[in-house]
Amino acid sequence: MSSIWMCRFFLLLAILDTSFVATLSSNATDSYWLLRIKSEFIDPLGALSNWSPTTHICSWHGLTCSVDQKHVIGLNLSGSGISGSISVEFSHLISLQTLDLSSNSLNGSIPSELVQLQNLRILQLYSNYLSGNIPAEIGNLKKLQVLRIGDNMLTGEIPPSVANLSHLTVLGLGYCNLNGSIPIDIGKLKNLISLDLQVNSLSGPIPEEIQGCNELQNFAASNNMLQGDMPSSIGSLKSLEILNLANNTLSGSIPKALSHLSNLTYLNLLGNKLSGKIPSELNSLAQLQKLDLSKNNLSGSMPLLNNKLQSLETLVLSDNSFTGSIPSNFCFRGSKLQQLFLARNKLSGKFPLELLNCSSIQQLDLSDNSFEGELPSSLDKLQNLTDLVLNNNSFIGTLPPQIGNISSLESLFLFGNFFTGKIPVEIGRLHRLNTIYLYDNQMSGLIPRELTNCTSLREVDFFGNQFSGPIPETIGKLKDLVVLHLRQNDLSGPIPPSMGYCKSLQILALADNRLSGSIPSTFSYLSQLTKITLYNNSFEGPLPHSLTSLKNLKIINFSHNKFSGSFFPLTGSNSLTLLDLTNNSFSGPIPSTLANSRNLTRLRLAYNYLTGSIPSEFGNLTELNFLDLSFNNLTGDLLPLLSKSQKVEHILLSNNRLTGQIPSWFGRLKELGELDLSFNNFHGKVPAELGNCSNLLKLSLHHNNLSGEIPQEIGNLTSLNVFNLQRNNISGLIPSTIQQCKKLYELRLSENFLTGTIPAELGGLAELQVILDLSKNLLSGEIPSSLGNLMKLERLNLSFNQLQGKVPPSLGKLTSLHMLNLSNNHLEGQVPSTFSGFPRSSFLKNDHLCGTPLVSCSKSTAQGKMQLSNTQVVAIIVAIVFTSTVICLVMLYIMLRIWCNWRKVSISNGDGGVGQKKEEGRWVCSDHKTRKGEYWNMNSFGMIPSPDKQNSEPTTCFFNLKMEGMENTNI
């Protein structure tokens, strides 16, 4: 019994041993390594779900086994949705000939251990997220025929060792971030058929040695930074079919040797710096189907002839400097030409009739040249034409009615010409037409009703013509219409209600016309509408409430119309970015629901009759850039309305009835460029925090009730252009810090209570141009001569202050000045001669100013010497009157005495006889003694008593009184 148990024990050991050996053998198989590779992949789609030890390896998804099914020779997991990194365990699959992990989400680097796969013939890792350098060891895969590792995030240079892959036929390194140059030894790849290097950052020249790749059929190196001339050696690549060197910086001329590429079907050299003429030898490329030489510096005439390039389907020569016109023998009747793009050159002449022979043409672009004349009536020969692009030329005349015969036409771009006349009604035959752009012409007449028969129309743009009359009533037939642009014409009448049935409409521009009436209620059907502009028309009436259903509106501009009532119906869209209702008759409060449009950037409601306060919900408009609520009847204070709107640049609230103090939170609006709070009832101080708004260009606080001083922090506004504090109650000094506002060109501080002197620092504001207005304040002292540095200043007003002293001669240098007012001050001295052209009113009511246009300074000086104060003048007048009175009384007294003396003499003569009379006559002369010691002193107009001088000898006769007449009378 024990022996039986012993036998069983050894049998079990044998079985376990066999199992162990088998397990060891299994670990060495490909399945072991593949399971380890699987463990490192992330497989959300379950592409590797059947990779299991329980199933045969050759049935696993993506695997290809050898004929004897002993080895895995192929692994293809392309597009399996796997992610993770490429495991180094791949190096153990030494029988692999094909490894394709392309179009997944693999990351990490390409492991250098793959070099151990010496049987590998195809390695495809493209379209992943692989990074790092291309391992230099990859050049040791001697049997490799296909290497496609592009469309990754690989960096660094192309390793020169790639040139060791002598069996390589396909090298795909495009769409990475590779730099450096194309390896010179690339020419060693004699079997190379396809070389894809496009969309990298490769630089340097294309090596001449590339001619060694004599089997090359596809060479694509577009969108790099390759430079230098195109090597003529490319002409040796006889098998070349595709040559794409677009969007580099290649220079020089196009090599004539390219004409040797007899198998070439695709040649793309666009976006380089090639110059000179197109070699006429290229006409020998009989197999060429697509030729693109656009966006270079090529010049001269067009030597290419379609009758030689018989396979040519696409010719693109746009964006060069070609001159002349299209050669007369360009086309032939059997032409295969389908696309001809000659835009943005210097071609001229009339519409090239030669093109009418190319009946195969589908797309014709002659835009942005200098073509002129009328369109040929035989244009309908181009029966296959789908796109006619003739914009920005000098074509004239009317559109030929025959254009309606080109039934294949889909796009018609004729804008930017000089077309006149009407749209031909025949255009209604173009049932495939989806785009018609006629803007910027001189067309007129009605928009034909027949246009609405083009039911495939998606875009219509007639901007900037002279179309008149109504919008066709049948416009609603254009069910697919997306864009309708009729702005800046002479259209009139109402909007047809049928327009509401253009349910695909996204952009509607009817601005700058003479349209009238109200908005049709059918507009509520335009659920796709994103932009509507109706400004500068005569629309009126209230808005239909149904507009609230337009939830996709982003831009609304109804400004300059006659709309009335509430604009609440326009606040239904939370997508609004711009709302402009300026200059209408909207009334009532601002709807708070407007604040639901969190992306609103521009809000303009000026010149309406809006009332109430600004909704506090506006604090949610964090994207707001422009706010204009001016010229309404808004009340209340600002509260913390826009304190969160950090992107706001313009706040215009002028001409309302807003109250309260100017809030300090304005100082937190770092992007603020314009603040206008003028013509309101704000009181309190100008907040110093405004000095934090370093981008502020315009600050208008005029016509309020602000008080206190101008804050010193105003000098922090170094970008300020306009500062207006006019008509407030501001007091104190003008801060000298204002000199730091070097970009000021308008400064108005008038009609306040500013005191002190005018800061000399104002003379440093060299950009001050529009005005410096300090009038109607309490400023004193002299005018600083530094103001003469304001050479750009056009208006200066210092009137109605208490300024003293002379007008600084330096002000005479202000040659740009055309308005000056220094009146109503205490200025004196001479007005600078350069001010002679200003009116007298500029200088009136000063104390002692003189010079043109006032009185001359010489007269002023003479008058000044005699000029007395009012008190002195009164005293002098009183003295003159008193003196005159005294003199009159004295004269009266003297005359009275003379008369009395005369009477006495007469009486005496009557008593004493004639002898005595003669004797009396002698006393008058000075050779006799005076009578009773008295003399007549004619100098004093009176009698002066004199002492008796018995022995005096009179020598002068003071009064030669002739008494002879008297004596005769008494005879």
UniProtKB/TrEMBL annotation:
Listed transmembrane segments: 873-896
Primary location group: membrane
Annotated ranges, domain Leucine-rich repeat-containing N-terminal plant-type: 29-66
Signal peptide residue numbers: 1-21
Residue ranges of domain Disease resistance R13L4/SHOC-2-like LRR in the record: 98-209, 688-826
Topological relation to the membrane, as annotated: Single-pass membrane protein
GO MF: receptor serine/threonine kinase binding
InterPro entries, per database record: Leu-rich_rpt (IPR001611), Leu-rich_rpt_typical-subtyp (IPR003591), LRR_dom_sf (IPR032675), LRR_N_plant-typ (IPR013210), LRR_R13L4/SHOC2-like (IPR055414), Plant_LRR-RLKs (IPR050647)
Protein name, as recorded: Leucine-rich repeat-containing N-terminal plant-type domain-containing protein
UniProt keyword list: Glycoprotein, Leucine-rich repeat, Membrane, Repeat, Signal, Transmembrane, Transmembrane helix
Domain of life: Eukaryota
